[in-house]
């Protein structure tokens, strides 16, 4: 476990608010990385990608920066427009 992982685990045990905020931020960043990876794989600019999925470029920028809490509906729209399968899975929490 890295020092940052240890710090996060310790802070999460001490504060439920911290744990909740970290969990939400981590989820948004995971979505951001996946959307950016998909766009890169398609070799598209944000503007081109946004046009393809029917969203403003600013929306794609907010998603990719982790500043937007993206709904499943928006993710489904992105998946449909890019001929991808959206998968949601539950995994056990590791301490």
From TrEMBL:
Residues 35-89 form the HTH cro/C1-type domain. Gene3D superfamilies: lambda repressor-like DNA-binding domains. SMART domains: HTH_XRE. Coiled coil: none annotated. InterPro entries: Cro/C1-type_HTH, Lambda_DNA-bd_dom_sf. One of its GO terms (molecular function) is DNA binding. Pfam families: HTH_3 (PF01381). This is Transcriptional regulator.
């Amino acid at each position: 476990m890295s020092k940052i992982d240890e710090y996060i685990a310790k802070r999460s045990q001490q504060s439920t608010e911290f744990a909740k905020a970290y969990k939400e931020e981590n989820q948004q960043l995971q979505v951001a990385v996946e959307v950016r990876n998909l766009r890169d794989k398609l070799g598209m600019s944000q503007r081109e990608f946004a046009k393809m999925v029917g969203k403003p470029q600013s929306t794609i920028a907010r998603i990719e920066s982790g500043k937007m809490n993206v709904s499943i509906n928006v993710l489904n729209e992105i998946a449909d427009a890019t001929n991808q399968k959206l998968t949601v899975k539950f995994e056990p929490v590791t301490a």
